[in-house]
Amino acid sequence: MTTLINNSPNLEDTDYSMENTSLYRNMTMIAELFPKKDKESLKIVVENKQEYYEPGDCLSGSVFLKPTKDIKIEDIEIRLDGVVHTYTDRINIGGRLSMSKKILEMISPVSLGHYPDNGIALSGDVYRFRFSFVLPELLLESQCDKILSHRQLPSSLGKGNTTKLDDLAPDMTSVEYSIQAKFKLHDETHLIKSEMLEVLSSYLPDKAAPPAYKFHETESSRHTYTGSNGGFHRFCRTSKTVKKGLLSRTKKGVLDIETSISKPFIYGKTGSSVVPLEVSMTYTPVAGVSISDVAAPEIESVFSNLYVMTYFATEEMPYIPTQNSLSLDSRLGLYTSSIALSRFYTSNTARKNSCGSVTANWVSEENDSSTSLKLNIAIPMLVPQGYALVPNFWSCFIGRQYMLETTIRFSNSSGVSRVLTRMNVEITSDRIYEKVLMMTQNDEVASEASNNEQNDETLDREDSQLPEEILGEEDLEYFNNLTSRRKAVEEGPKQN
Predict the structure, then answer these.
(1) Distance (Å, rounded) from C-alpha 148 to C-alpha 201?
(2) How many CA atoms lie within 13 A of 28 on its CB side?
């Protein structure tokens, strides 16, 4: 729809009744859009302006045209575009490979009936062209017909980041979304204006498809991942042999360590949204050692760092890039940076904790087979302010993933040692996290109802079976025969 608004109304003669109130508001807005010293002739206004947009969100607004001279409009095009840019440097042979691909193009049509009279826009008048878009849940199949997750909208990144915060994207990558207004004039010239948008790749996590990043595994450490609690729960287990001395081969015991988190980091809540890191340790001494004689390793510190990994390629990624493959394949790129999330020191160290007071005390635990000591610590982690870490996503040309590395330093008679655990973690939006919490609560209610129903069925079966101590042997035999005959009648005659 196009609305012609005169730039110089007689405000004193304006009727301020309800039907004319919008005219006054429009003129106030236009005065703000086109100050006297402003020579721009096009402005884009998004009416429901948000900090960021997610798949399914509606964007509506207007394009305002104020020509500085009389112009004849041949064509008007208002689009919502999404474009991915990447490049890699060919270190061995020199030069650069680059790629630009339009992943999204939506058009809000302007019919000829909404053009100015005879297509002529007069100098000094202001024309309004409305638009409306709905961000799709998925890109077209032509973008990728192999992997469904590659059709999810990637998050705004790099130059497409409209916030003033650091998204830790390298210069080699950008994902840009914008509203484009293009007016083709009779003299073959164009009036063009664009408005950048922040788009988040907000999707429910896939329990069956955890993040693809893999870690090197050795005989002394094993890493396990799970997708419970809506896919946001992550844990990593590893173990270390504790010896009597630095050069000794005598084994004192085994230290099993598990680090886990049960919630994601929330986009836009840096400095306020705390994610607890659960650290669980079990020290099991060698057989035959009394628990009173056991000296558990002394935990000195626990550090947690978030590694931000941006994958990119100038062609469709044939495989996930690694540091080793980058020197062999100039089409691929991987940029990694890290952020410190927490610093925990035990009470016997003079250094200050970044996470406040956290106790770390070993507790003995005995069972029939062994005696062990256990230690559980909950350490609050916080993404520092100043970052805009977008939700995880994968596409054919660019991807963003996150890895949490925890370093545990402990000391014993053999000196100071350290253990590393690594696990993939998620960053998501408020909307997705609330949706997952609601789904989890519904699953728990349904599971509890199912368990209650099964318990009722079990009680009914138990009530229908008379115990042997109540019936005599003859009665019990008669009861069993009766039950067998009833079952045979219910099943019907057997087919030969």
Answers:
(1) 14
(2) 5
Report pLDDT for 286: 79
* Cβ neighbours, 10 Å, residue 215: 15
- pLDDT value, residue 61: 92
Give yes or no for a contact between 86 and 316, defined as CB atoms under 8 angstroms apart. Answer: no
> Quick one: pLDDT at residue 416?
77
Cβ-based neighbours of 468, under 8 Å, separated by 6 or more: 476
Residue reference for tokens 């490049």: 87
| Contacting residues for 18 by C-beta, under 8 A, at least 6 apart | none
Residue 229: name the closest of 298, 278, 290, 267 by CA: 278
DSSP class per residue in 320-331:
---HHHHTT-TT
DSSP character for 204?
Answer: -
Token pair 């099991």 in the structure block, residue: 284
**For residue 297, which amino acid is it?**
P
Please report the pLDDT score of residue 184 as a whole number.
Answer: 93
Tell me, what's the pLDDT at 444? 62
Three-state DSSP state, 475: helix
Q: Give me the residue label for tokens 């039950």.
A: 483
3-state SS, residue 24 = helix
Looking at residue 298, its pLDDT comes to 83
Provide the 8-state DSSP code for 188: S
Closest CA to 70 of 124, 27, 136: 124
Determine the Cα–Cα distance for residues 54 and 110; give it in Å rounded to an integer: 25
Phi/psi of residue 485, nearest 5 degrees: -65, -40
> Which regions in the chain score pLDDT beneath 70?
1-27, 92, 206-231, 245-249, 270-271, 288-294, 323, 327, 347-360, 366-370, 413-414, 442-496
If one counts every other C-beta atom within 10 angstroms of the C-beta of residue 295, the result is: 14
SS3 67: coil
What is the distance between the alpha carbons of residues 372 and 386, in angstroms, rounded to a whole number?
Answer: 44
pTM here? Answer: 0.78
Amino acid at 108: S
- Reading phi first (left if > 0) and then psi (alpha if -120 to 50, else beta), residue 230 is in left
Task: Please state, in angstroms and rounded to a whole number, the distance separating the CA atoms of residues 265 and 462.
Answer: 48
Q: How far apart are CA 314 and CA 303, in angstroms?
A: 36
List the structure tokens of 256: 């099993």
pLDDT tens figures, 419-470:
899 988 889 998 888 888 887 776 666 666 666 666 555 545 444 444 444 3
Contacts of 138 (CB under 8 A, 6+ apart): 55, 148, 151, 152, 153
pLDDT for the residue 244: 72
392 is written with which tokens? 């995880």
CB atoms within 10 A of CB 225: 15
Nearest to 464 by CA among 486, 444, 437: 486
Residue entry with tokens 């510190």:
301
**Four-CA torsion 408, 412, 414, 417, nearest 10 degrees:** 10
How many residues make up the chain in this entry?
Answer: 496
> What does the pLDDT read at residue 466?
40
